[in-house]
Fold this protein.
Amino acid sequence: MSVEQLEKVDLMSIDKESETLVLTILDALEWDEEDVHLFTLQSKVNAYLEFIRTGEVYKAEPDAKGMRMAIEVMFKHKPHAAAEAFLAKVETMLYEQTRVKFSYGPNPATGYVDSDG
């Protein structure tokens, strides 16, 4: 799965402690100057929101009924400054408008491939 496959949910998991269904986007694209990557990511986030809004999420994961929803993005490459600004806006806007928690960062097991930290 990948950020480019808009019709697929890359990864779905339940955090039992917080009673949250987490939909994960696996993003291995490199960042570009033309913002094609950013547009692709925005389209994938919108597809996930539609998956939640229409209730399809409960067909895929019936145990999620009554749970909080979260979207997380695991990046292979460290976002550039413009992407970071966009992601911060998405985080605030999503929660305020939909109560869907949004988070992003590197894969916890591997970190960013183009970073020392």
